[in-house]
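Study the following:
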Amino acid sequence: MADADAAAGNSHWIYSLMDSSRISTFCISILLIVYGSFRSLNMENEQKERDKEKEKEREKNPLDPSPLGNSNEQNVQTIDSTQAMFLPVGASVSLLIMFFFFDSMQTVFATCTALIATVAFAFLLLPMCQYLVRPCSDGTKMSFGCCGRFTSAEIISFALSFCLVCVWVMTGHWLLMDALGMGLCVAFIAFVRLPSLKVSTLLLTGLLIYDVFWVFFSSYIFNANVMVKVATRPADNPVGAMARRLHLGGIMKEAPKLSLPGKLVFPSTHNAGHFSMLGLGDIVMPGLLLCFVLRYDAYKRAQLISAEAGLPPPVSNFSKVTYFHCSLIGYFLGLLTATVSSEFFRAAQPALLYLVPFTLLPLLLMAYMKGDLRRMWSEPFIASGSLPSKLIGV
């Protein structure tokens, strides 16, 4: 009888791990990291092509006063060592502000989140809009005064994003919240870059400590799990607040409270009313590391096949394994471990406690074995006339 009960308990435990909500969390988080990383790499390559074209035009017309241009780099934020060390501190301060002053500032939080999510989701929709309008548009930018100049694809993507945010504000549906969260993830991974493995290690180690402290130890100081409380607390709808202030009735006054898109949630098909949740930081922060190694893989590949390097392509199977593949597999295993731990302990787990070691440690080991560790640690993208033999691999 005891054996039968144990077997039933084990089967139920495995069955809960295969829940649709958990599978959705796995698939969507990995897809967002892959898409955001390749989007960032594509942006970098497009900027290089534009710089080459402007350089050719400068050679043809030396008297042209226009600069070579670095417009895309002005939009990209590169994190340095100081920012990496203080980012967990800033995140802790923001978390405490939302914990203590959420009730008095929840309308402000919801409004700011809606504005930022509109721009981020427009960025996510932009490639699709560019593909759809390509047959009927030549890419000419239209001026909107002080707001800037935009292509028709950019205008359409922003309009669609604005409509989606309006529907989310009026309905508060979890699926629309997830869509906005996906846009935030992709935009953050694409526009924020880590310059070296040193900065990546500082950032992820600091965030690991931050995540562990606020999930496991904050309840001993604040008598509540600060991270979970902030992540799950709904905000007052700004439309409903404005309607009540102006004494308006109807659907605007009945607008539901909003769960802010700082996380992805997926409903369970096994347990009605149960949702699987993953914070956006658990996608974005490891995603920045994977974006960095993808850019380094592309840089190293370009150096190896260039005429200046004069080196044959790697021949061993180990050399063919890219850092991006290694880190992506590590992310999957880390997320799986976090899921198993959450199910085993029946409590919220700091996902970065598992994601950071599973992504960072194999990457460091692989870089050491390939002989790239010193280069990746400090200045991985410094152009050189030739590559040392240690970059070929073993």
